[in-house]
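Colleagues,

For the teaching module next term, I've prepared a clean inverse folding example: a structure given as tokens, and then the sequence designed for it. I'd like students to try predicting residues themselves before seeing the answer, so please don't circulate the second half yet.
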């Protein structure tokens, strides 16, 4: 039973009366004593939504612009329709607007760039005058899997963050994928891998990071920070990794290591309980990733490792307290952002601060926190990069942490501090405040009473009250430990404090209210119960708060319930179609009931709500007009840092550094209240990164499109001597004592597979990735799994019809059979299923004579069947290697600006699909990579260059623009999500696509999807040299190109489809001068 509020101790209650605040003359005037902070250079963030009253427009006021005197011009379809006043709110309704219009908003008098015009959203719901619009982002869900104990798991989108990954002023969206078997630290068991994806607002997947088996899944393990740490105008991603973690380009993060502890990238370090324990848990890393490409730029050792303490010292024997991680972004020097990573909070606590300068991830300090000297420890000891150290035996973070952190300048010295539960970590790693009240779940930090100082509200699980130990408590305090109010409110897992009733705040002078999950009512800062808990369908609405309806009070968000609260009328739903409905969408993290993200993502200062919806997310956006003018909250550094740490532990609401409420509105000289704030806490003084002085990041080698190589020979051996080189299926089974050095050869061979590939065609090329794809079926009466092992053999001169084990087993120093440690466990499956192995390192290290031989065997005696190169069925194909090689280096900055239609964002790695013409190896003519000076005349051999609006004829001046859809590198197990059910790895996408349909009746193209879900094309041409014919197969989604293949005319049967969603396929045939041979053929819904 929950305990009701029973007692208060008011130590120093701060109640601010409503006073006249003088008018500001400019935004910058509020920051005269504070250094500028380097923050994101955001665009206008304009949103247009069709409503019943026309088109509602909303846009950002930036932190570099005047709060009091900046008017805006509004354009509809290139014509100015309205100019706002100098301090009007940044929203407007165009009563004549339609869904077909495009809108641009610019500062008054500035010229417009029509490429920045925005389309109108038509996804909008209105009920009883209240409105909500939304934008859906479709995600690509990772494939599920099985744990070593055969537990199946799937994935759902979990916590999210945002950052401007490519420097265009728009946010990209980073999502953590949570497996269905993710675990709290206190629970044993295996989990699936954790993935991190980055998406554009239009759903374009930029990259996927796979953290591997040595990072456990759960709320307390993966805290990822997205921020522009080096000031190059583009956000990086920093998080904890381990051996086996792969970056967005498919490379192990260890390859970017700098003086790291060496680990085995192929080793599963979990114990039989699925836990990572001590040194046996393997090395731990911290990696900074390139936000554009997902590539690991540098990896260092995570400091400290879990093995710094024994299990007994950590306080448990099941990797609970040692695996509690928190993270934050903070301006420790007052100007530039640092990342702070912490380990532990129930007992010992370690915190390390790092900077990233574009080249090196440098540790600034490491703070080690033990019990205080009074309690037998040494308190807080800080070691700095220069070798010096500090110690305070009387202050510590030990046992004081919460399940989240906050960042704020609590002592007004211009530098950020980290609020770590019941203690405050100073910018230099020392403990600023320690009150000893212990661990808690929730904390909120802001200037809640508009006195120019930060208050800390915390819900404790244990603490002290009136010098006596009490079970649980909440408190409001200053950074120095001065308690403003304490209250016993039962077992407090969640609690909240904010200005949630602006009318009450203005009239009473009690500017913020608070309550907790266990309270009997809602309380003001004087400790007075002033209303009932805003309970809605069993929820106390104590989780999150968002700015939504246009007044200066904050609304309440619990799960997907959005509530307006007032003391007079209680709780009222903001969004509903009936009394008890909620925002459509799903919530995360169980009882924590949080959205994927809440933040001021675009439009004016109000916040957006991001809920999981289907396989993606839905971003909810308020279209309720506001009269108030505020700078975008993302240019308040405390709020922006809060968006970075919102995904940490138990997600908490972000707060600004200053008070938002009518009590803080400015007044003119006549005492009239104005519509903008003049709070007691200064606004952040914003400056943008000086990218002109920044050394560009090292260019990443471009890769050519994947090429597929079929096996040169394959066979399987039974009883050491019987080869089956002509069989259509390789029957793989047990092979005992394969690697025992004392054994002269193989024993009990029931089915040893051999597969050889000839790679001489690619000699001299630099390999980027290699994936071995096999079709496997596995059925047995027991319906149990069987492990399939992949190894390699150093002897390649064998014949598939006559080979015996004696030909490949010669023990000694140069033993030809070697273990790779690669294995998969296919599920019981009577039909063929594609399985994959990453063999990049094997080929790089072992393919010395342009031949590579792989061996296959099982360790259980249960037979698995692999389709051989002779397989004639339609449900599988023989072994293949999919290879990627380095191409040419892209220029650091694309030299041609993308056009408005379509909007094309340059990719870090432009790619080229290999064809017969042009060749796989780029030549001077045609040009396959954007150059600073594009050719001005069409060449005899067509230039394969993406165009914004492709035509049948080469233009006089080819447009050099990167592709609209970034190419995704193939993963070990590629996701299959196409609407037409494709089955293979996607290819790169150059965009040379004809759009016209010439009338060429004498020649005919026939195309169809065959029963194997592959494309067959037939050409019936008159008097045509087929050597001159180039076939182009375009995959489109609602008219937009999403994929392209250019097969040779001799290989037009069984063409693999792509794995992107598309609605139709178009087939073209051209000659070498880009002239059509036949009419375009279109397949829609599998029908020509």
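(Answer key — instructors only)
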């Amino acid at each position: 039973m929950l305990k009701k509020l029973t007692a208060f101790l008011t130590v120093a209650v701060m109640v601010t009366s409503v006073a006249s605040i003088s008018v500001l003359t400019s935004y910058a005037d509020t920051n005269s004593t504070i250094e500028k902070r380097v923050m994101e250079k955001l665009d206008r963030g304009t949103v247009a939504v069709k409503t019943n009253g026309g088109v509602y427009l909303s846009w950002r006021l930036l932190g570099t612009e005047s709060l009091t005197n900046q008017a805006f011009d509004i354009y509809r379809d290139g014509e100015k329709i309205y100019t706002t006043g100098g301090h009007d709110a940044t929203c407007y309704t165009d009563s004549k607007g339609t869904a077909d219009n495009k809108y641009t908003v610019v500062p008054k008098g500035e010229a417009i760039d029509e490429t920045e015009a925005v389309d109108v959203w038509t996804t909008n719901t209105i009920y009883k005058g209240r409105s909500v619009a939304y934008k859906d982002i479709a995600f690509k869900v990772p494939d599920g899997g099985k744990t070593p104990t055969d537990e199946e798991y799937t994935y759902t989108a979990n916590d999210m963050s945002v950052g401007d990954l490519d420097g265009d002023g728009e946010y990209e969206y980073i999502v953590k994928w949570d497996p269905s078997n993710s675990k709290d630290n206190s629970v044993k068991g295996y989990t699936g891998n954790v993935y991190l994806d980055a998406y554009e607002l239009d759903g374009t997947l930029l990259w996927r990071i796979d953290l591997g088996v040595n990072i456990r899944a759960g709320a307390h393990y993966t805290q990822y920070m997205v921020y522009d740490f080096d000031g190059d105008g583009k956000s990086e991603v920093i998080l904890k990794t381990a051996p086996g973690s792969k970056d967005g380009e498919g490379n192990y993060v260890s390859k970017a290591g700098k003086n790291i502890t060496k680990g085995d990238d192929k080793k599963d370090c979990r114990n039989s309980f699925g836990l990572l324990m001590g040194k046996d848990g393997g090395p731990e890393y911290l990696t900074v990733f390139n936000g554009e490409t997902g590539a690991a730029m540098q990896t260092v050792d995570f400091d400290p490792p879990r093995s710094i303490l024994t299990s007994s010292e950590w306080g448990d024997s099941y990797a609970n307290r040692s695996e509690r991680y928190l993270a934050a972004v903070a301006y420790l020097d007052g100007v530039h952002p640092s990342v702070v990573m912490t380990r532990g909070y129930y007992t010992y606590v370690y915190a390390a601060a790092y900077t990233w300068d574009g080249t090196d991830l440098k540790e600034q300090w490491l703070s080690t926190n033990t019990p205080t000297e009074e309690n037998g420890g040494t308190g807080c000891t800080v070691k700095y990069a220069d070798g010096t150290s500090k110690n305070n035996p009387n202050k510590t973070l030990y046992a004081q942490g919460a399940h989240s952190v906050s960042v704020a300048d609590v002592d007004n010295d211009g530098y950020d501090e980290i609020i770590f539960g019941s203690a405050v970590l100073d910018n230099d790693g020392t403990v600023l405040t320690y009150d000893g009240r212990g661990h808690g779940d929730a904390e909120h930090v802001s200037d809640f009473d508009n006195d120019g100082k930060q208050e800390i509200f915390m819900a404790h699980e244990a603490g002290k009250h009136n010098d006596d130990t009490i079970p649980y408590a909440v408190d409001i305090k200053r950074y120095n430990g001065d308690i403003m109010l304490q209250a016993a409110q039962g077992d407090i897992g969640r609690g909240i404090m904010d200005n949630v009733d602006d009318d009450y705040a203005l009239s009473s002078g009690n500017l913020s209210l608070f309550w907790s999950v266990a309270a009997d009512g809602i309380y003001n800062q004087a400790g007075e119960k002033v209303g009932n808990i805003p309970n809605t369908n069993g929820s106390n609405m104590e989780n999150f708060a968002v700015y939504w309806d246009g007044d200066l009070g904050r609304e309440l968000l619990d799960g997907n319930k959005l509530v307006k609260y007032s003391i007079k009328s209680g709780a009222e739903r903001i969004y509903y179609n009936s009394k008890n409905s909620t925002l459509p969408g799903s919530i995360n993290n169980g009882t924590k009931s949080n959205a994927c993200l809440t933040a001021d993502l675009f439009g004016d200062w109000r916040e957006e709500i991001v809920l999981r919806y289907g396989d993606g997310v839905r971003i909810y956006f308020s279209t309720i007009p506001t009269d108030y003018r505020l700078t975008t909250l993302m240019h308040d550094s405390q709020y922006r840092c809060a968006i970075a740490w919102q995904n940490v532990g138990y997600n908490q609401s972000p707060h600004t550094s200053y008070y938002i409420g009518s009590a803080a509105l400015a007044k003119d000289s006549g005492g009239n209240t104005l519509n903008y704030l003049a709070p007691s806490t200064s606004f952040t003084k914003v400056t943008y990164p000086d990218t002109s002085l920044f050394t560009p990041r090292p260019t990443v080698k471009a890769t050519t499109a994947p090429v597929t190589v079929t096996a040169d020979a394959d066979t399987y051996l039974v009883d050491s001597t019987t080869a089956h080189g002509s069989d259509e299926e390789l029957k793989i089974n047990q092979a005992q004592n394969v690697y025992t050095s004392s054994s002269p050869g193989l024993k009990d061979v029931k089915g040893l597979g051999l597969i050889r590939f000839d790679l001489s065609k690619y000699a001299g090329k630099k390999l980027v990735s290699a994936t071995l794809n096999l079709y496997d079926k596995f059925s047995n009466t027991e319906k149990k799994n069987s492990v399939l092992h992949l190894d390699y053999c150093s002897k390649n001169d064998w014949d598939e019809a006559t080979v015996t084990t004696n030909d490949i087993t010669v023990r000694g120093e140069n033993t030809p059979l070697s273990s790779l440690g690669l294995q998969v466990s296919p599920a019981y499956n009577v039909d063929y299923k594609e399985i994959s192995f990453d063999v990049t390192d094997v080929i790089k290290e072992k393919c010395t004579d342009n031949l590579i031989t792989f061996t296959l065997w099982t360790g259980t005696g249960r037979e698995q069947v692999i389709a051989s190169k002779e397989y004639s069925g339609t449900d599988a194909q023989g072994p293949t290697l999919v290879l990627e090689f380095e191409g040419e280096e892209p220029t650091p900055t694309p030299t041609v600006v993308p056009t408005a239609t379509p909007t094309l964002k340059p990719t870090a790695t432009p790619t080229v699909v290999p064809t017969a013409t042009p060749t796989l190896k780029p030549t001077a003519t045609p040009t396959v990579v954007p150059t600073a000076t594009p050719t001005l005349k069409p060449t005899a051999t067509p230039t394969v260059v993406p165009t914004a609006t492709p035509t049948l004829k080469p233009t006089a001046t080819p447009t050099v623009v990167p592709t609209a859809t970034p190419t995704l590198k193939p993963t070990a197990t590629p996701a299959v999500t196409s609407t037409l059910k494709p089955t293979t790895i996607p290819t790169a996408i150059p965009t040379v696509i004809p759009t016209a349909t010439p009338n060429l009746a004498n020649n005919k193209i026939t195309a169809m999807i065959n029963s194997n879900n592959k494309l067959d094309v037939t050409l019936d041409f008159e008097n045509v040299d087929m050597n001159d014919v180039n076939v182009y197969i375009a995959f489109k989604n609602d008219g937009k190109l999403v994929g392209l293949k250019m097969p040779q005319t001799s290989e037009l049967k069984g063409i693999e489809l792509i794995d992107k969603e598309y609605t139709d396929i178009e087939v073209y045939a051209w000659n070498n001068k880009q002239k059509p041979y036949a009419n375009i053929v279109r397949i829609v819904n599998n029908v020509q």
